[in-house]
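Quick one from the shared queue. A colleague (R.T.) flagged Tetraspanin as missing a structural entry in our internal table.

Convert sequence to structure tokens.
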Amino acid sequence: MRGYRAIKYILFIFCYFFWVVSAILIAVGTYAKIAKEKDVVDTLMVDPALLLIIVGSVMFLITFLGCFGALRNATCLLKTFLAILVIIFLLQIAAGVVGYLFTDMVMERTEKLMMKAIVRYREDWDLENAIDFIQKKFQCCGVESYKDWSQNMYFECSDTNPSLEACGVPFSCCIHFQNQTVLNTMCGYGMQQQEESLARHDIFTTGCLEKIVSWAKNNLLLVAGLTGGLLLLEVCMISLAAAQISWINKVLRRQKENAAGMRSWISCRRTREHLWLRVVAWIRSRAASRS
């Protein structure tokens, strides 16, 4: 019984933790969505707020099934929770295998997605902040090079572009020196017109895709550890849910067996009482006939 309670409450704690995290994701995504202008982009892959809301909602539903199912011993909810986790686990494994076998295709799709994000820069504050964070963090600019910013209507390097930022790059591409106390947001102006050998003195010229791949290769143990930790956590939750379902079914079987045994005992006792009454009646009838 103690083992069953441990399984039950450990599963509940895991699910409750991720349930709270999912609620926070939904709240942050909703707040960011409301704070935006009405005419901003609404595409899932390039809208961080919408992505947070959808991921948070899916997590909320799944973890709610686990929480309520574990707490109330509801096998139907636990089986649904278990099935969803198994599907997600298999999809992650399949995605990893496909990514390993078709690396070139994955890189091409990733490049297109990142280029699409660059095109929509300035249309979404969250997307703009995300791109600026990536470029600062990985010290990169654009997807393949700093000249990718010409794909954006504000930074397009052409004579017909009236934007003040024409032929420039965002300030997040700029190199910030240690003795620099004031942030110069105009540091990227006109950088696309310069050759890479000259531009690299003021901005990062390497593309972010190459930088991110290089970082992943250099931190392979960290990436593998995080991925393995996530998969291990999913396996633990799957095992706990399966164990609780098995325990509940075992208890239900015992209850049915005990009920069947009790019914059999009651039936046997009634049969004995009936036989005893017949014997008593026969004895009385014999005694009456002799007298």
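The mean pLDDT is 85.
Residues 1 and 247 are 10 Å apart (CA to CA).
Added to the table.
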